[in-house]
Design brief:
mainly alpha
């Protein structure tokens, strides 16, 4: 790989990281709302059927068979982080926003 291709690839990675950070904040804002709803309605944090549906839907967006398992792992990690955040919010009684 020549230097120009490496620089270009790293630039793309940087842009993707910036986009993912923005989307992460957007997701966690929604998670905050979900946590408040679950707390107010006495619902558990874990919803296994919902998690399976999220993974199935997410995998439908990935055409590259080599990346599908990796994306499923990525989604599981994101959902684990989301559940941990919900737990924190519910334990501390933080409000939406």
């Amino acid at each position: 790989m020549d230097d120009d291709r490496l620089i270009a690839a790293r630039k793309i990675i940087g842009e993707a990281d910036r986009d993912m950070a923005r989307l992460f904040v957007k997701r966690m804002d929604a998670v905050r709302t979900v946590a408040a709803y679950k707390r107010d309605h006495g619902l558990p944090i874990l919803d296994e059927a919902r998690e399976r549906a999220v993974i199935e839907r997410g995998l439908s967006y990935i055409e590259d068979g080599e990346l599908r398992d990796l994306y499923a792992q990525f989604l599981r990690h994101v959902m684990d982080i989301s559940k941990a955040y919900q737990r924190r919010l519910m334990e501390h009684g933080e409000e939406n926003g």
